Fold this protein.
Amino acid sequence: MQRELQQKQQAAQQAIGAAQQEKQAPIAAQISKALAEFTKERNIDLLLDAAKLGDAVLIAKPELDVTADFIAYFNAKNP
């Protein structure tokens, strides 16, 4: 019974992961494309995702954070 429960849990996790990927992949692609356009238009050579880097970003000037600018840009192009 324990093994059956583990198999069902694994199957459920795989199904959830597949469904998440299916739904999020088009959105992630759209955001990625918009980020490429955004950085090109603003002549930004390097853009770091601090959320993914975690503690790797020790200090940054607040004016370097373009999150709000990108959100406004993205929303304007995707109402």
